[in-house]
Amino acid sequence: MKIICVGRNYVDHIEELKNKIPNDPVIFFKPTITLNSSSIFKMPNFSSNIQHEIEVIFEVGKEGKKIDESDSLSHISRVGIGIDFTARDIQNKNKKNGLPWAFAKSFDDSCTISRLLNINNISDINNIDFSLSKNGIKVQHSNTNLMIFNIKYLIHFISQKITIEKGDIIFTGTPKGVGKISKSDKLEGFINNEKILSINIY
Ligand code: MG
């Protein structure tokens, strides 16, 4: 099982971090040890700027390689939301020096996910409304119809290079509104107005 993440997939977030719109999906991975499906996120002590990035996530239900876009959806079993917790201070330093992001994106609990919903309960995966609130105030809100590269294309693109396996989780990028979290914050995530994620920051 692996965790595949897509960066820079919403124009408004690319603009807020002053990045360039990519020609191809930007892909990175998180080790499975970073996965957290509990209701607690413990702040790491090596960063002074841990930020939330809410993302729609898809679970792979069937192995495949070199998948045609027309067949992509048959490889998805469930959908949910995840928070791609990011040490922005470390990421900015690494980006400035042209170095990889590894510890900016991969640390304990940095891949915190909601409960997952059966894909059959979603009427249109290219029209999923999702949002994140912090301490009761909505801070991120978007729709999967605003992705630069949609999930069908992402599965096609990723599977050209690496086999996707049952149980893999795909993070599909965050919209604007990313921000710093602090101890005692409460984060809540919604898909189509249904709350499916609730995290207390310790
Ligand atoms: Mg992200």
Model description:
This protein has 202 residues and is α+β, with helices and mostly antiparallel strands. It has a single domain, classed as Fumarylacetoacetase-like, C-terminal domain (Fumarylacetoacetate hydrolase, domain 2, Alpha-Beta Complex), CATH 3.90.850.10. Strands 1, 2, 3, 6, 7, 9, 10 and 13 form an 8-stranded mixed sheet that branches. Strands 4-16-15-11-12 form a 5-stranded mixed sheet, with no helix packed on it. A hairpin with a 2-residue loop joins strand 11 and strand 12. The longest helix is centred in the last third of the chain and has 11 residues. The chain is globular and about 45 Å long. The chain starts with a strand and ends with a strand. The structure holds magnesium ion. Magnesium ion binds next to strand 1.
For this structure, the quaternary state is single chain
Shape field: globular
The termini sit apart by: 28 Å
Class from helix and strand fractions: alpha+beta
The average pLDDT value, as a whole number, equals: 96
User: Which ligands accompany this protein?
Assistant: magnesium ion
CATH architecture: Alpha-Beta Complex
